[in-house]
Structures are given as structure tokens and as C-alpha cells.
Amino acid sequence: MKTQKAIGVALIGTGRVAKALCERIDRLQRQGTLAHLVLCGIANSRGQWRVPGGTWSEALSEAENWPRRTGDRARIPETRPEWELVIDASDADSVAALHPEWLAAGLAVVTANKRGLGGEVGRAARILALWRRGAGYGASATVGAGLGAVERLVRMQAQGEQVLSIEGVLSGTLAFVLERVSEGQDLAGAVAEAQALGLAEPDPVEDLSGRDAARKLRILARVAGFAESGESVRIDPQLAWPEGVAWPDAVGEVAARLGCRLAARPSPRARLAAVARAEPDGLSFALEWLHPLDPLAQRQGPENVILIRSERYREFPMVLRGPGAGPELTAMALIDDLLASLERCAGGRAGDLGQRVFALA
Ligand SMILES: NC(=O)c1ccc[n+]([C@@H]2O[C@H](COP(=O)([O-])OP(=O)(O)OC[C@H]3O[C@@H](n4cnc5c(N)ncnc54)[C@H](OP(=O)(O)O)[C@@H]3O)[C@@H](O)[C@H]2O)c1
Hints:
This protein has 361 residues and is α/β, with parallel strands linked by helices. The protein has helices at 16-30, 56-64, 93-96, 99-104, 121-132, 149-158, 172-182, 187-196, 204-208, 211-223, 251-263, 327-345, 353-360; strands at residues 7-12, 37-44, 47-50, 85-88, 108-111, 137-138, 163-169, 233-235, 271-279, 282-290, 303-310, 318-323.
């Protein structure tokens, strides 16, 4: 039997997504798959550890017990020579800032953290440039979990297909919260329910203010090759979260604004949605009343809907729909990218998806 070369993996972030990922990898390894994937480093905002062996979940529990201090979030992991593949399951800007550095050093990066491609414009440009030159970057988990929007856009580029616009309900959390509030639940209660389901970002203001959805929109627009995909997403002022105010201090103010919008319902069946749009003249994220038959309104609970219009999907857009968040689905999307990276490390494919794709772009 052919033995596969061991691949040293570092896991950054030990929260909900990381936990679901470790449990799934342990399960796969017990079944005899991915045995050559060796967790050799683990880090969170509190520290870093060279993993001596054992299961992934055991290493994660160990890291979860490290003491917590305030002001840890800017901590920068120290890259180790034994790392070949980094999984970023953190929400830290300081970690995303290392993505270009890791790629340039030949490491593969698989990320749920949107602050790489969806963050600062220069950082995203460097990641895209390295990806285009064949660096192994997996960002499926950053938008719509397992729906595959990022790969679909990358493949369209490979086919020379020009993307004309992208529209979507990209925040399952905000969609879920708007649905509950439309049904009469109070805002704080709806957010607590989303948090209990593992849907909300670590800081719910990221979801409610549209900042998280704006990052997802930037990722899609940048991958689709939109020229106007710099920093700025026009965010609906009705979603604006007062500067410097933490959750839940502005709940009353935001709930009052949402209440006004709900009171202006244009028809009994209209659905309020937070719609992200990437069009040639720019990116926007706004509250909109949708006709119930609008494809963007055809969703339930935490589902995302993404509509891609391109030269060949002009009249009838490509529609991707399904649950778009949650630790388990996000972990599955990370594993999709891990498998692609492993094939690449093993030389099983004629280069990485990004290399094949962007070479044609
Ligand atoms: N949950 C979802 O459904 C979902 C869906 C798609 C994408 N994502 C993305 O996946 C990532 C993780 O989400 P989550 O729900 O698992 O969040 P979480 O439970 O809050 O975990 C975040 C992890 O990031 C770690 N971290 C923060 N700053 C760090 C730093 N400077 N260095 C190293 N680690 C650091 C935290 O460390 P401590 O433990 O020390 O605080 C924590 O372990 C986020 O980027 C999120 O946007 C999540």
C-alpha cells in the first residue's frame, strides 16, 4: 500500500468552527482517511502550542483551557518551520494579515476568516496575485459555507465567462433576525436565538451592522474580477451601528429604526431582506422590501441565496441557495478546501484550482 507523506498542519483559532472541524477530522481519521494530516501547531488569542500528538479534539480542549486575558485579540501567531498548511478558523485581522506572507512562503492556507480576501484592499490584492500564480488558497468557507459561491466564480473566470452582477442575501444571521423581528420578536431575543444556533459572529454587531456581509460581498466581487471592488461597500444607514458602541448598548436605537421600516411594509406579503449587490458601478448592502416571488425572497431560516448573472446566465441567473453558516457547515467547507489542498500537495491535480483558473483570466 502506498503511504502518503505526512503534512504538518497548524490550526489558528479554537472556537466553534475549529471544534466542529476537529471533531470531523478525528472522525475521518478513525475511518482511515486523512491520516497523513498531522496537527502540529495550534494557536488562539491566548497562546500557541506545539502539539505533541493525540487527536485533534484533544489538542483543541487543551488550548481551550488556556487562561484568558483582555486585549489578546491582536496576538500574532509565530510561524513554525514544520507548518505546511495553515487552517485559519480565527476572526482576527492580525491572523488574516499573515495570509499573503504564508502563501509567499509556500504554505497552503485554508480559511474561514473573511478578513483575508474580504479585508483591506492591498492585502486582498496580494492574496489574489499569489493565488493567481499558483499558491494554495482555500476560501470556500468564507461565503455561504458549503454553497460553493467562491469556487463557482473562480471557475467562471477559468471559462472566460464575464460576471455581470452578484446579488445575495449573504447574512444568514441578519436574515434570521429580520424574519424573527418581522414576526414580532424583540431584537435582543432574536439575536440571542441566532447566537444559540451558532449562526451569529462572535460579536453580533458584525452581523447587524452589515460589516460581516460587506466582507463577504467584497470577497465575491474580488474573486469575480470586478474592477470596482475596492474598500467601499455602501451600507444602508438604517443598519448603521453607532461608532464605538458595543453590543447590546445600541439595541434600543437599532430596534426602533427597524420598527419604522417594518411599519412601512408595502404589501402584506412583502419580505424585508438585507440585500448585497455587486454591480459594475459599485457594491452595496441595503434593507429592501422584496416581492414574495423574488428569488432572493425564496429562502427560509438561516438560508443564504446568491444570484450570479454573467454573459451566459444573463436572463436566468445562476441561483445558489441553502444554509450559509453554522460551525458544522463551515467546517465542511474547510474540509472541501483541505481536500483540494491535499490533492495539490500530492501533485494529484494539474496544479491548484486557482492556478488553472487565474492563468486563464
Ligand atoms: N460560525 C459560523 O457559522 C461561521 C461561518 C462562516 C465563517 N465563520 C468565520 O469563522 C471564524 C471562526 O468563527 P467561530 O464562530 O468559530 O468564532 P469563535 O468561536 O469566536 O472563535 C474565534 C477564535 O479565534 C481566535 N482568535 C481571536 N484572535 C486571535 C488571534 N489574534 N490569534 C489567534 N487566534 C485568535 C479566538 O481565540 P480565543 O479562544 O483565545 O478567544 C477563538 O478561538 C470567524 O472568522 C468567522 O467569521 C464562522
